[in-house]
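Subject: Interface between my chains keeps coming out wrong

I've been trying for a while to get a sensible model of this assembly. When I model each chain on its own everything looks fine, but I need the whole thing in one frame so I can look at the contacts. Pasting all components below, labels as-is. Any help appreciated, I'm running out of ideas.
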Amino acid sequence: MSAGAAILLIVGRELRLSFRRPDQLLQPLVFFLIVTTLFPLGLNLQLSLLKDMAPGVLWTAALLSSLLSLESLFKGDADDGTLEQLALSGQSLTVIVIAKTAAHWLLSGAALVLASPLVAIALGIPSAAFGTMLASLVLGTMTLSWLGSIGAALTVGLKRGNVLLSLIVLPLAMPLLIFGAGATDRAISGTSPAGALYFLGSLCIFTCTLAPFAAAAALRITLD
Amino acid sequence: MWTWFYRLASPPFVYRTAGALMPWFLAAAAATIGYGTIAGLAFAPPDYQQGDAFRIIYVHAPSAWLSLFAYTTLAVAGAIGLIWRIKMGHAVAAATAPIGASFTLSALVTGSLWGRPMWGTYWAWDPRLTSELILLFLYVGVMSLRSAFEDPGRGDRAAALLAIVGVVNVPIIHYSVVWWNSLHQGATVAKIGKPEMPGSMLWPLLAMFLGFMCFYGAVLCMRLRGEVLNRERQAAWVREAMRS
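Reply #2:
Try treating it as a single job with all components included. I did that and got this:
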């Protein structure tokens, strides 16, 4: 079987599996909404002040809620032995990582992007900045999925790997926060966000070409 | 040609070599740090702008340099362990991580103490301090990952991989933080540039750099010996070494 066909099969399986349990799809999204609600309540801000903080709040919440679903990237399949079967299937482990991470992004990252305008309205981000915000979130959550696949692969064999996973992935994800929030910030203030978006794009390409190999190597360490 | 390389893989050889090197490193460190401290604190002229407060550079700058140097050692030693399956590479990585984290912490503490008289605040989100803080998080991640595995071999390899991923990311993180600081025109931090330093200021600083390197070497040898003994505690040579 060609690598492309294998990727399509695995992505299809992941999507079917998670659409049968929609609550797990929705939970990170609800978490995303709750975290963004916490900031205005905790800071007691007026809407005008809130607008300045909105990109940072939105991006912090997006990073945290993406982390929640990251733990399950390989865990379920590793626990019931599916991952070993996939590894023995003759396909390269890198191909399997690419497929699983792509499916993970479709289920968590893309859903987050779709939910973000709702949060953006609540935080007072002007609709003129929505395009930039969505573009930055698409690139940022993709990059986070690739980075996160390394972290998830490293912690897959651990019993309580969840906190450790955040500890590993969040420092690596800080450039995303800087440029993602920076791009949105610039779009709100009316200056060109192109530079930050280009940087996010290059980070996305950089991680998607290298991270699958690192994650596959990590799976070989933690599984064998 | 490769025999010296493979001898490095032998635990008794590493144990003995580290023990033989340690006193030399320690003596060199004592001499250079002693000279640097006395000359830096007593004889170097006060800075024309910062007065005597600049003298913290004699601890701060070498600590910051060592924090990066130790991380590079961590990644290179981990890569050697991962690629050639040399267990001693992992031992060096395990020994170097806490030292590097301590240097990072020392750079952060001295940096913020320096910031108090210079910026009027302990923490100014200066790009270099911020990337140093992220470096500390990376160290903590590598150390916790290593200890999270029950099988030490697996923990070693996982930590080595994470250290390599981290070393690729360190420049990206550093430059994004620099750029982020120029995006947020916050409190404009007076840049502590490097004006021409007179020799009486510069030589103690160079001596401190050298001294910190030697001190790092000495502590690394010390920790490495402990690490090797702990890892090889079942081996016959360890029992013999302990008896004599």
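Reply #3:
Confirming on my end. Residues 11-43 of chain B form the longest helix (33 residues).
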